[in-house]
């Protein structure tokens, strides 16, 4: 794993970072966005060059399209056998763009219009939107009357991995551990604890931290660049993290991001701050079996802008995860809580019958006799 150098960071800031995270760790953490040193905020990020492709459509040739094809293959929009990585906008790329636009509720023009490009360059989860050629998200669903221009979401869009893998029934107590090399502080670990709590609140699942990394069900690590699983990270922004479907339990985060742990962005507009808890809640969704959702407000939506905090599960997320695991018996998001009367009923006592209506009926009959 690559050691990070802080040579350009002023000493005071270095000490601040070191106090949060020991120097041996391979990731940047900041208590809040104002503590991110300017030297760690890049002028451009890996996908910014895509903005030069404005207006491109089928039939044109433009420098940079080859790289865009790689992008679409990375996220499943061009299948793995596609290898025509030149700068020609071919029919396969057009189909990929249209599918992408459908998934992200954009007008499916097949053209690289401003709203599509604006979305393509957003930081996002490294997991593909389309797995094994099976389009999940919105493009893979039958027509549901959903309008691309509508902001009203009435249809669920949660998805699962192919074959719907999940943790086996009866395995409700799951353990997680952090890569020892990362030497994460208590503050950082508590961010993950809160993220797990979001999912345990609505399911019968429970998550406990263990120190045994190799034996934990879920293994969390910060890595930079190529880290051995064929899905290298890409520096600041671009892909932020990825996680494997159950029961693999592998959860990797890009150590090059400027991870912010307090989540309080106020109204500032940081160039590269990424809210750790928001990304953690999303990736845990994958670890439990959820795929990406087309619902923009859902945790399982694939992109998240820098400086944005999104940690509350949406109805779409809750419905999806409960379809896999059922609800937490104590979850009262939509169910009424037990009343003393309910508890009395559950004691096995026979229900009491109300006979007063029979008395009324008797006198009514007398009137007609
Ligand atoms: Zn994801
Ligand atoms: Zn990885």
Automatic annotation (TrEMBL):
Claim: NAD is one of the keywords in the record: no
Name listed for the protein in its UniProt record: Interstitial collagenase
SUPFAM superfamilies: Metalloproteases ('zincins'), catalytic domain, PGBD-like
Similarity remark: Belongs to the peptidase M10A family. Matrix metalloproteinases (MMPs) subfamily.
Residue numbers annotated as active site: 283
Binding-site residues for Zn(2+) 1, renumbered to this chain: 227, 229, 242, 252
UniProt-annotated binding residues for Ca(2+) 1: 181, 257
